[in-house]
Amino acid sequence: MKYGNLINTKSNFDYNSLMHSSTPQKTILILAANPKKTAQLRLDEEVREIEEGLRRAEQRASFIVKSRWATRPLDMQRAILEEKPQIVHFSGHGEGEKGIVLEDAIGRAKPVGAKALAKLFSLLADRVECVLLNACHSQKQAGAIAKHINTVIGMGQAVGDRAAIQFAIGFYDALGNGQNYSFAYDWGFTAIAMGTNIEESLTPVLIQKEPILDKPKSAHLFISYKRNIAPDENVALESVFENLKLGRYLT
To answer: Contact at 8 Å (CB) between 66 and 30?
Structure first.
């Protein structure tokens, strides 16, 4: 499990204030929860390290970090509507089949399961690019979300607090320096292996939705011959094979 301390504050660091750029910005929404009677986590350190890494990054003007603390299910929905993030990051506890652990109205644990999360993100498929569940045993929820979101990362088993923070640092350091989500995942993976141990580096699981290919279109092949000239059968066959390789149907 992840251990540490939580400070209940709200952070909104806007990197655009540091540097003006015409590059389209991406909003990272961090949702943190550490309910009463659950192991304390160093969520504040995780957010601080993410912000510090992006502040130093080559493409720091391309990212805005927004965060919410003591997150309830309603807070999660409202924050996504208000901030319109491209990246959604949950930091907290996970309880396997029960789901990721948010808070209820009086700060107690409120698990949110895979079906509810899948329904939520099915409404955001045209907006959210990546979801990171930095919580123990969150692979099932990640798999459900990945039916709708292109890139999702969950944890296949319990993850230590230090390893979770190291993964987040590596992941966002890579994004901030122009890398794609797949490379950023590998960079975070490597950060755990180098900073903690190789066994724990196997905990994060990357799930990427396969692109939907367009339905193959039929191709009509016409071969004409000139009178008194032998047809070039080799050229005709090459054309047929090329269309087959491209996945076209010949009629």
So the answer is: yes
pLDDT at 179 over 70: yes
Say yes or no: 116 and 232 in one domain: no
Q: How far is CA 6 from CA 33, 36, 84, 154, in A?
A: 9, 11, 25, 21
CB 19, CB 60: distance < 8 Å: yes
pLDDT tier, 221 (very low <50, low <70, confident <90, very high otherwise) = very low
Whether 193 maps to a domain, the answer reads yes
pLDDT tens by residue, 186-204 = 999 999 999 877 777 779 9
What is the number of structural domains in the chain? 2
Residue 105 phi/psi, 5-degree rounding, is -65, -25
* Residue where the block lists tokens 């490597």: 190
Q: Are residues 95 and 171 in the same domain?
A: yes
